[in-house]
Amino acid sequence: MEYSIIQVALVFIVTFVAAIDQFNFLESLYQPIVTGAVIGLILGDLNTGLLVGGTYQLMTIGNMPIGGAQPPNAVIGGIMAAILAIATGLEPNAAVGLAIPFALLGQLGVTLVFTLMSPLMSSADNMAHNADTKGIERLNYFAMALLGLIFAVVVTLFFIAGATIGQTIASAIPTWLQTGLSAAGGMMRFVGFAVLLKVMMNRDMWGFFLMGFGLALITVANDSLATPALLILALIGFGIAFWDFQQQTELKGAAVSDGGDFEDGI
């Protein structure tokens, strides 16, 4: 499938912005569910972009960088998964599995930028000591531009190559390997969610988890509710969370008011 120079340029820009957004800006534009949809719009297949982005989002939902240790990068991985699925016609789960090496490449890119910027931190300290705000701004802009360029160049090069020979590569992949990639890609979303649950879950939340699981089974089993199931569950979850927030706020307010005002130790 051939793509225009405008589409290539837009992919470059989206990747550049998403790479910077990962550590700056809103820190939400880089999420695979967003980049997948945007790449889908650019390449003319929004549905596939959303499917791949949502699948990749679930896989990375529990990934958090700890100190200098970086997980496989969600920016390059998510964008390349969408590109592979749309440009080569791969099944979304298989595209997610095939995008993991690109995510590891992004991980190396982030580590490289962090390594290159480390010696410059002493210069930043001196700038702060001398109240050189312009110098600090230039240093930050340099780091952001460097990361954005690395990511954008990598994705664009693979995008151009993928658009040219991607279909040949996809057709050369044996059926058993495509099946394995699909299974791995489908499994990764559950692994990512399990990692998140391991961090967040406590005894007080198990009731909500089981209730949500039961509601999901009921809505999916009902043909009339299966399509808007995600929206229904999201609204129910928001309603419960909002109710719990109100209850907690009222309890805290009551605890403060019951304390009364004491004077002279009485």
Question: What key attributes describe this structure?
Answer:
single chain, 266 residues, 2 domains, mainly alpha
Radius of gyration: 23 Å
Count of DSSP-assigned helices: 12
Order of helices and strands: HHHHHHHHHHHH
The chain-level mean pLDDT equals 80
Name the poorly predicted regions: none
Q: Helix amount, in percent?
A: over 70%
- Shape estimate: globular
Give the termini separation: 82 Å
Strands, count: 0
Query: What's the number of structural domains?
Result: 2
- Protein structure class: mainly alpha
Main sheet makeup: none
Question: Can you walk me through this structure?
Answer:
The protein has helices at about 5-20, 30-45, 45-60, 75-90, 90-100, 100-115, 120-130, 135-170, 175-200, 205-220, 225, 230-260. It is about 80% helix and about 0% strand. The protein folds into two domains: about 5-200, no CATH class; about 200-255.
Summarize the structure.
This protein has helices at about 5-20, 30-45, 45-60, 75-90, 90-100, 100-115, 120-130, 135-170, 175-200, 205-220, 225, 230-260.
Any chance you could write out the topology, listing elements then pairs?
Blueprint (H helix, E strand, L loop, with lengths): L4 H17 L10 H12 L2 H15 L13 H15 L3 H7 L1 H18 L3 H9 L3 H40 L2 H26 L5 H16 L1 H4 L2 H30 L8
Helix pairs in contact: 1-2, 1-8, 2-3, 2-4, 3-4, 3-5, 3-9, 4-5, 4-6, 4-8, 5-9, 6-8, 10-12
